[in-house]
Known about the structure:
Blueprint: E1 13-15, E2 27-34, E3 47-54, E4 67-74, E5 87-94, E6 107-114, E7 127-134, E8 147-154, E9 161-162, E10 181-182, H1 195-204
Parallel strand pairs: 1-2, 2-3, 3-4, 4-5, 5-6, 6-7, 7-8, 9-10
Amino acid sequence: MKIDKPKISTELTSRNFTDIFYDEDLTLEMCEVVNSTFENESIDKVRLYNTVIKNCKFTNTNFSNIDITDVCFENCDLSNVNFSNSSIHRVEFKNSKLIGVNIIESRLGNIKFETSILNLAVFEQSKLEKIIFKGTSLNSADFFDCNLKKVEFMICSLDEASFEQTSLNGVDISSSNFDSLTVSMNDLKGCKVSPHQATQFATLMGLIIKD
């Protein structure tokens, strides 16, 4: 599946994330932010456009109602960040930690999570369209009541992830692994799985498979 990559200018100014406090409209755009720390803060309705963010720490920060478009996060720590009620489009997360990140009631499109950690991430009641999770850990992630369209989990860990009240029709998990997964049989219809996973689901249903 092809997704739209972030549209980022080749000419970016260098800024610190704390500069956002001095912007009247709480916006960072056409810039590169490197080695910035912005932890345990609370700031509403931030806007990030056409920006590269590297080696930054945002743990335990409240970014609710954030608008992120055309941004690349690389080697960042966004653990326990609150991205609820947000709009996130054409964004890449590379080699980043998003443990326990809260992305509930949000809209996500054309996003790639690559070699990142999203264990315990919460996507409840969000709309995800054209999303690629590649080489990413999503153990105990929560996708309750989500709308998934054109979503792929490529070589991911999905152990104990929950897809309650979320249809997996058209979703590809065939290259990923898990010991247990929470999903109803009705919501599993149309999901792309491997032969081994089909056996796992049959076992979870209580079926006894004879040689």
